[in-house]
């Protein structure tokens, strides 16, 4: 059975990622890319769907022991787990070296004290646990083959096969090390090179050490910010610069429910706000690579901007259900692909334009096509900003005039006007100033409830929406505007959980509400960070700091966050780790540091 979502550690090579549980089990790994089929899919099913456990030997009828402690080695993505057993202490170091050839997952067992019996149990299942590969020996190496894929298993330990699983039983004494490596290769090619675990470990540590040195943030929340930045880097697909929302699919927003989606793609919204955080903390190269990815992805057809693309810019992300997988804790269906790709979400135009504006303002080398793209996006919005859409939360119910979408359309026009005013682009300045004023007036007249002194989720609605917290952050209205303060206080009253975290919007329980789905969901962590930001902006800095530090306490022991927090079960839910949670963590830390709103 899979562990709790927060029981997992992330390791990766900037092209794919694995999740390692506290008991030493790798329950999730897609090869060779984030969006490839999983080789280990036990996270969404059971051991029959693929796993790799490495840890102290245990009785067949007993649960595998969990690590006594674990941590990343410094500011890196190298995981160290230690078990204290009656026979001694053992350490396992897990990592994926930045790719130079075949993708590899390397696990090094090291004896610390005593003599500890160990076991490696490797069950490879291709195509998300559906296909049992042909496992055989080739020149002394173990290889699993199925169709176009092959995975090579290398170790100095003696291995044997039993019940369609490859085992190794061995004992380690103090100072002894035994390495295990799996490498992926297209099945029609020659075998991958033999791994060099110790050299790869040294190179991996050096990579992360050098990367972290570029961070320009040195405030009181540096540990949390650095871990979030490393996580965002790990979610970046290095060959193209695309950034996945999360490395997983179908981890539920509600345990046992149907709110299960595939997040292994590049959402323009998520990637744009990630770009903002990277630029504000000194990572210009990643920002440049994302901008180039964006320009390639939308090239030739910006009027049909999608809300998300594949990590190389693919447009077709057809959604399907994997009915042989029971889902995480029986949360079905398990989905791959994402049918929301072709939704109309007008806010995306604002987020993309804001990202391009920030890149321009921070001195990123000029790209003429980026400016041309910005102008084309505004020409599209001229004709479509007043249409209903599916909104930031990708509702699968009827389209509505979502207030946040209109606000972000205003942002797109406003930032483009600023680009023209700077002399770096040409456009119909007066016409677009009038458009900006028209959108602003429309939102304030139709999206604001005067009786309750709050903006609403959509025109004519009485419901609230946490995305309204972004109104002062994007400059639509100043923080001291009574309508802004009223909205913040209304969201606190109506969308807060008992422990003070923020829901995205009211869900409907068993009936289908605004999002067209049954069931509830947890508190959305990004929205809770937005609330902390707003509280700081309106001068309630102590309250903002307390909320921020409560949010930091929700991170797992390795500093990682999923998409949501279930206030009833007191656990993380949703895909993991989630870029859309780590980005606002960074932003709030920067805001609180700038305001001096921190303890100690």
From TrEMBL:
GO MF terms held by the record: alpha,alpha-trehalase activity
Pathway connected to this protein: Glycan degradation; trehalose degradation; D-glucose from alpha,alpha-trehalose: step 1/1
InterPro entries in alphabetical order: 6-hairpin_glycosidase_sf, 6hp_glycosidase-like_sf, GH15-like, Trehalase-like_N
The reaction(s) this protein catalyses: alpha,alpha-trehalose + H2O = alpha-D-glucose + beta-D-glucose
Transmembrane domains' residue ranges: none
One Pfam family hit: Glyco_hydro_15
Highest taxon listed in the record's lineage: Bacteria
Domain named GH15-like: residues: 219-589
GO biological process: trehalose catabolic process
Keywords linked to the UniProt accession: Carbohydrate metabolism, Glycosidase, Hydrolase
Family the entry assigns: Belongs to the glycosyl hydrolase 15 family.
UniProt name for this protein: Trehalase
Organism per entry: Streptomyces phyllanthi
Lineage: Bacteria, Bacillati, Actinomycetota, Actinomycetes, Kitasatosporales
């Amino acid at each position: 059975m899979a562990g709790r979502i927060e029981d997992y550690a992330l390791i990766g090579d900037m092209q794919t990622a694995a999740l390692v549980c506290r008991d030493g089990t790798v329950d999730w790994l897609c090869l060779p890319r984030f969006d490839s089929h999983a080789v280990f899919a036990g996270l969404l099913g059971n051991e029959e769907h693929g796993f790799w456990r490495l840890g102290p030997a245990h009785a067949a009828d007993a649960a595998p022991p969990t690590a006594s402690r674990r941590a990343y080695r410094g500011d890196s993505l190298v995981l160290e787990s230690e078990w204290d057993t009656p026979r001694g202490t053992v350490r396992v170091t897990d990592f994926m070296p930045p790719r130079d050839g075949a993708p590899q997952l390397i696990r090094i067992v090291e004896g610390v004290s005593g003599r500890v019996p160990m076991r490696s149990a490797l069950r490879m299942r291709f195509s998300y646990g559906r296909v049992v590969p042909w496992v055989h020996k080739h020149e002394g190496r173990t290889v699993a083959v199925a169709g176009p894929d092959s995975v090579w298993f290398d170790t100095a330990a003696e291995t044997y096969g039993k019940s369609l699983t490859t085992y190794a039983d061995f004992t380690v004494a103090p100072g002894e090390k035994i390495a295990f490596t799996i490498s992926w290769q297209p099945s029609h090619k020659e075998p991958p090179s033999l791994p060099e675990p110790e050299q790869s470990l040294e190179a991996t540590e050096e990579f992360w050490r050098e990367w972290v040195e570029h961070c320009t943030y040195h405030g009181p929340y540096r540990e949390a910010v650095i871990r979030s930045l490393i996580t965002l880097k790990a979610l970046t697909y290095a060959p193209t610069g695309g950034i996945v929302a999360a490395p997983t699919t179908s981890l539920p927003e509600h345990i046992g429910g149907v709110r299960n989606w595939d997040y292994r793609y590049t959402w323009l919204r998520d990637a744009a706000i990630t770009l903002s955080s990277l630029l504000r903390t000194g990572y210009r190269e990643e920002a440049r690579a994302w901008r180039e990815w964006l320009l390639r992805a939308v090239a030739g057809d910006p009027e049909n901007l999608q809300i998300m693309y594949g990590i190389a810019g693919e447009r077709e992300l057809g959604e399907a259900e994997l009915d042989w997988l029971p889902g995480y804790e029986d949360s079905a269906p398990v989905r791959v692909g994402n049918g929301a790709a072709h939704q109309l979400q007008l806010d995306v135009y604002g987020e993309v334009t804001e990202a391009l504006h920030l890149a321009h303002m921070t001195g990123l080398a000029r790209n003429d096509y980026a400016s041309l793209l910005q102008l084309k996006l505004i020409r599209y919005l001229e004709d479509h900003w007043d249409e209903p859409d599916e909104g930031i939360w990708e509702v699968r119910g009827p389209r509505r005039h979502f207030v946040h979408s209109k606000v972000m359309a205003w942002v797109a026009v406003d930032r483009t006007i600023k680009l023209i005013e700077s002399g770096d682009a040409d456009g119909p300045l007066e016409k677009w100033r009038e458009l900006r004023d028209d959108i602003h007036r429309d939102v304030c007249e139709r999206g604001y409830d005067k009786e309750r002194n709050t903006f609403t989720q959509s025109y004519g609605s009485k419901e609230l929406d946490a995305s309204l917290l972004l109104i002062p952050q994007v400059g639509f209205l100043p923080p001291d505007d009574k309508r802004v303060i009223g909205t913040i206080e209304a969201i606190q009253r109506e969308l807060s959980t008992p422990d003070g975290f923020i829901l995205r919007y009211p869900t409907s329980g068993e009936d289908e509400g605004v999002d067209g789905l049954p069931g509830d969901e947890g508190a959305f962590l990004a929205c809770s960070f937005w609330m902390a930001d707003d509280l700081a902006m309106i001068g309630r800095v102590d309250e903002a700091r307390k909320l921020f530090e409560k949010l930091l306490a929700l991170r797992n022991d390795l500093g990682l966050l999923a998409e949501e927090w279930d206030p009833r079960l007191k656990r993380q839910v949703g895909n993991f780790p989630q870029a859309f949670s780590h980005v606002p963590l960074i932003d709030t830390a920067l805001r609180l540091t700038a305001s001096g709103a921190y303890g100690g």
